[in-house]
Amino acid sequence: xxxxxxxxxxxxxxxxxxxxxxxxxxxxxxxxxxxxxxxxxxxxxxxxxxxxxxxxxxxxxxxxxxxxxxxxxxxxxxxxxxxxxxxxxxxxxxxxxxxxxxxxxxxxxxxxxxxxxxxxxxxxxxxxxxxxxxxxxxxxxxxxxxxxxxxxxxxxxxxxxxxxxxxxxxxxxxxxxxxxxxxxxxxxxxxxxxxxxxxxxxxxxxxxxxxxxxxxxxxxxxxxxxxxxxxxxxxxxxxxxxxxxxxxxxxxxxxxxxxxxxxxxxxxxxxxxxxxxxxxxxxxxxxxxxxxxxxxxxxxxxxxxxxxxxxxxxxxxxxxxxxxxxxxxxxxxxxxxxxxxxxxxxxxxxxxxxxxxxxxxxxxxxxxxxxxxxxxxxxxxxxxxxxxxxxxxxxxxxxxxxxxxxxxxxxxxxxxxxxxxxxxxxxxxxxxxxxxxxxxxxxxxxxxxxxxxxxxxxxxxxxxxxxxxxxxxxxxxxxxxxxxxxxxxxxxxxxxxxxxxxxxxxxxxxxxxxxxxxxxxxxxxxxxxxxxxxxxxxxxxxxxxxxxxxxxxxxxxxxxxxxxxxxxxxxxxxxxxxxxxxxxxxxxxxxxxxxxxxxxxxxxxxxxxxxxxxxxxxxxxxxxxxxxxxxxxxxxxxxxxxxxxxxxxxxxxxxxxxxxxxxxxxxxxxxxxxxxxxxxxxxx
Length: 684
Fold this sequence. Notes:
alpha+beta, Phosphorylase Kinase, domain 1, 21 strands, about 50% helix
């Protein structure tokens, strides 16, 4: 076991033990240079009887985690192997396990469980969507951490496995935690798959809701009558379906389970009654209207007018409703009347797809609505048959919803189908109408980007874990094509919105994959800079871009040596030639009187030499560079009097240059690439 203060691999200083089990020890460590905290998981031959097998499991866990990217999963940053031990360095998740929270509270309220359940469904659905699927197999409160942000994170992938589609045999051995494990995890009872995780999730939610620990003898789930009246009948029914011994009787995937969770109405009885009354009143109103129109029977025009009026009323009622379940009922009634009416689909997009709030449960409800059946068949097929242009517009809007508003890798992958639907439905005539050629081209490019996510980010990599540079080159070309759409004075609001989304996409993708782009010899930094410049981003510092007027004021001030004061716990300041910070310990901070100078610690008084050095290497970070006049005014000596030889040296190497007016000294594009090397020469 490592002791506090020990530096692992010359980089990670051990602070304390934060977790210990039969197979491993987890430490809290800090990176010596970066000062960032990490969690270090250790398997040691000294304390592990089956070291060889367990160490292999840790390597498998690391191999799984390094290929994953989801906010509900920890990130792995390093693997350190030695003869008698192995360590995995991963993201340190600050928070409490659900087991700790359960011990504190006794049981968890259903309202909170609904939120947690949907989050866990999202994480598991992401794992199951990988090719091959990843089956977690050890879901329990102890392996789930609740962050301060309210986000759940799934930890400990020691028992996870990649699902083998070709193998229909049983799993060879028991893996998981007794009490939480599904019957098929005990060996000889079938192969584990996504439904195994649904069983474990069901038991986990049961434990959190009831306070019963299935991990303790008699290792079983008590009958429903002992669960308590605080759990709704809907929730009880959901849990019972999750924990069926036969996988075929459970929810078949996490999408189904997430949808079931979203449908549970946990509101007070009074609120339910009010909802019923609203629906009854509306139905009575519609029945009266229908009876009054029976006098006009035989007049088809009047009948259709009635349907149109009814559809408008249903749409308005849906849009006013704050309850998604209630809104979906109104939309379903509208679709049954006129399934080809474009206004219904536009309203559903507006209601369910909201900026950054389009969740899996919203998608499930929306897809359930458009696949519902009317007299002519599935409403979406009727819509496509009778209103092709409206269907294309709806498909394009749904594609954008998945691509941007859901926004994660899964959402972007799911958007491909709908962009392709938009393209395939449009005719040459449609291109000259409302939909437009530009929108059709954009749909094609978005489909290419979505296909990239499906092909490489969702479905995997080669054996080395790396994707070929050619793949990124194709991706870059698509982004470049997307960046050809220009905004003019004649641009519509729709065009402006599209331009904003495009600029957002290009910025995100270049930020995420700049390193991979640059691995291809045909792509260079100048090309990436041009793509960002097209959408208005300027490089104002060696590693920062911003829209004009949106630069970080604090950073510019810091690089220019402007004094600033920080207030509050641990806040840093630079004032009157001194750098200092406030007390970092909350308890100590609270004990001190609220007098600014008594809160301060870590004083560093800068000498003139220090200030000159900082002026140079901080100022040269700015793309604008440093002012010769400002240097002389501040330090009463000429810039070239101190650094003349250094400046001349790097001017000759085309790494430093003066602006056209000769007032500012700045790094060249080539100089930015070796800026750390240049800064060293400005140290006195």
